[in-house]
């Protein structure tokens, strides 16, 4: 009788412990997903973990979201449905274990830029049981930028080539971390004449194309800002 009681008590403790666990939520893709596709949609995949041992009703909730004004917005596809960009949550019955879902960023083509959102998973029957918030970012590089390498150890801004140039030249730069990058061209008076990059980029070496059509001959400056890193170089346009 005593053994039966101990076994029954242990089963109750195990059941209570099992059903008091928080659901899991893990991003599969990098924190920032980079795509060169400036058309329609970019995706960031994740895993929802149901730890309860039985099918359970779970809710994925968007807690924040930022996207460019020329994008449609942010949506989610869970194990059953894809929801519109106006929806901020998705509810489904998840089997025990891991299930893959994805966050999507819908754009009006052709467009580039960066967007991000944060999401969490909670148990519908007990919303206090929830995962930590998970960050999902996506950046779409404009056509004028090409990623050359993804293995970089330090920041660098190279001299443009050719230099002098007329009217096209290339500017290479490297960033070892995912950063918001600004690459801009200024005339001798310090007036901005062209924005080549203004978005979050993943680590790597990049090549930006600059077309000076419509600008007069003379000296110009180009400035790279990436996090706390700043560098400026000169170039000469000869027509």
Essential attributes:
239 residues; elongated; 57% strand; Immunoglobulin-like; 19 strands; mainly beta; 1 helix; five-stranded antiparallel sheet; single chain
Produce a short descriptive summary.
The protein is mainly beta and 239 residues long.
How would you sum up this structure, described in words?
The protein is 7% helix and 57% strand. With 239 residues, the chain is mainly beta. It folds into two domains: 21-140, Immunoglobulins (Immunoglobulin-like, Sandwich), CATH 2.60.40; 145-237, Immunoglobulin-like (Sandwich), CATH 2.60.40.1930. The radius of gyration is 25 Å and the shape is elongated. The model has no long low-confidence stretch (mean pLDDT 86).
Topology:
Elements: H1 2-18, E1 24-27, E2 32-35, E3 41-50, E4 56-66, E5 71-77, E6 82-83, E7 89-94, E8 97-107, E9 113-123, E10 126-130, E11 134-140, E12 145-149, E13 156-157, E14 168-175, E15 179-186, E16 192-201, E17 204-211, E18 218-226, E19 229-237
């Amino acid at each position: 009788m005593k053994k039966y009681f101990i076994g029954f008590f242990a089963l109750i403790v195990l059941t209570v412990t099992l059903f008091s666990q928080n659901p899991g939520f893990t991003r599969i893709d990098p924190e920032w997903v980079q795509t060169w596709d400036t058309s329609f949609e970019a995706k960031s995949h994740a895993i929802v973990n149901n730890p309860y041992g039985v099918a359970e009703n779970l809710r994925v909730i968007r807690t924040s979201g930022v996207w460019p004004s020329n994008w449609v917005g942010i949506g989610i596809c869970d194990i059953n449905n894809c929801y519109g960009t106006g929806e901020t949550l998705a509810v489904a019955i998840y089997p025990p274990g891991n299930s893959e879902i994805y966050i999507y960023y819908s754009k009006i083509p052709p467009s580039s830029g960066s967007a991000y959102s944060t999401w969490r998973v909670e148990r519908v029957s007990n919303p206090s049981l929830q995962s930590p918030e998970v960050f999902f970012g996506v950046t779409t590089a404009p056509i004028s930028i090409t990623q050359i390498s993804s293995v970089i150890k330090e920041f660098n801004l190279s001299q443009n080539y050719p230099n002098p140039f007329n009217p096209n030249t290339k500017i290479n730069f490297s960033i070892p971390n995912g950063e918001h990058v600004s690459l801009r061209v200024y005339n001798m008076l310090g007036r901005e004449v062209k924005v080549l990059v203004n978005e979050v980029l993943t680590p790597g070496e990049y090549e930006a194309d600059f077309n000076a059509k419509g600008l007069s001959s003379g000296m110009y400056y180009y400035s790279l800002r990436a996090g706390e890193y700043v560098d400026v170089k000169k170039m000469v346009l000869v027509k």
